[in-house]
């Protein structure tokens, strides 16, 4: 992610203008329940067994409640409220109908998953809001209930590890809009509805506001998107456009993203777009979607974008996805590294440093995700540093000066939290970007260029397509440099 107009010198004003909201308190949120037999909202007390239930059954249900709670988190200590265990999603097939002018959607999501635990009789997904019309497991209608921003789906029979399940959820309605505790500078994550445009910005916890999902990067999957919109709109998503079909006034766009994709990096954008196509000198297919007003200026940037993506491929390993490009959206104050189809604020669509920052995320944050969101510095620090590298690629001494300037700025106003475990509201704060970039620069200086870049290539070879931790990263860099980096990382993470 890259906030608009963030720069050294406005650190303090940026920090002050952020809305400080209460921190991450996921376990005390209000609980509501919706079941398919009774769609009334209920409190937790209503959900727990009532007096009409036999005492033995009460005990059983309490034990079941604990078992559910254990599987209803991916285990990320920074963000325990998202993600679920017990299964590994292979593919999401999403059929969705959207209209920029209408604050409403209808959708069917088919989730293909492999179970990873024995004796499963229920699975949970992250999902907030909407009227659920039907839940099927392997084509069979099943019971479900909703609690604590989760959807619990009963399985038709007890299921053991390694079994394939197809879960289909049909739902519709107005999306819930509320601010993420981690992104206090955007009103709400998920779908941004505008008069003549809509788009999805979900990092880190917003996908559950528009589709049922295992909403943590530890469970990446492929996606097939079937997006129906009224004419004259174009629908854009991650991956490759396979086909379009027209039915009356409606056009359906079929997008496929085959490579592993973290839920936070899934996007859809719907607007009146022109498709701009080119190919990088090394042959990477570039396709972007911009408004008519921007098209001509953006077209002139194509050679630079091609040169940039080839330069990164040489440094970090081949571009990991089938195609690459950007999609222009109205201003929400940030751009986002949505995989292979980057969401760009209209104020940044022609800004080379933001284009570069988001492109760098294709490696740092997309191809390799984070085991824990607390280590967001590894995404933002690298993306920030790579854009400075690009800017100063002809003049390394100037890069040193830039980093020195950043170091002075940070020393003048230090924060009192560890770089690898910020408060929720500071996840996308100054340190993740600039202190992270400074760490990267110092690591490069300490290791030397040969070991540093060879370590990065190994990191992508080993963890590409999945997620890694700071400890995994440190181990790779130690191997590449031939010496311990314990003291180095301890001093940065204190
Ligand atoms: Zn970023």
Task: Name the features.
494 residues, alpha+beta, Neutral Protease, domain 2, 30% helix, binds zinc ion
Written description of the protein model:
The chain is α+β, with helices and mostly antiparallel strands and 494 residues long. The chain folds into 2 domains: 2-20 and 275-493, Neutral Protease Domain 2 (Neutral Protease, domain 2), CATH 1.10.390.10; 30-51 and 60-77 and 79-272, Immunoglobulin-like. It is built from 12 helices and 25 strands. It has an 8-stranded mixed beta sheet, with no helix packed on it. It starts with a strand and ends with a helix. 44% of the residues are buried. Bound molecules: zinc ion (ZN). Zinc ion (ZN) binds next to helix 7.
Q: Tally of extended strands?
A: 25
**Structural class of the secondary structure composition?**
alpha+beta
CA(first)-CA(last) distance: 25 Å
- Trace the largest sheet across and list its strands: 7-6-10-4-3-13-16-15
CATH class of the largest domain: Mainly Alpha
Overall outline: globular
Oligomer: single chain
Helicity, as a percent range: 25-40%
Query: Do you know the CATH topology of the largest domain?
Result: Neutral Protease, domain 2
Q: Which ligands, by name, code or SMILES, are bound? A: zinc ion
Largest sheet: 8 strands, mixed
Helices, by number, come to 12
Low-confidence stretches at least 5 residues in length (pLDDT < 50)?
6-60
Tally of domains: 2
Could you say what the CATH architecture of the largest domain is? Orthogonal Bundle
Question: Overall mean pLDDT score?
Answer: 89
Radius of gyration: 23 Å
CATH H-tier superfamily of the largest domain? Neutral Protease Domain 2
Strand content: 25-35%
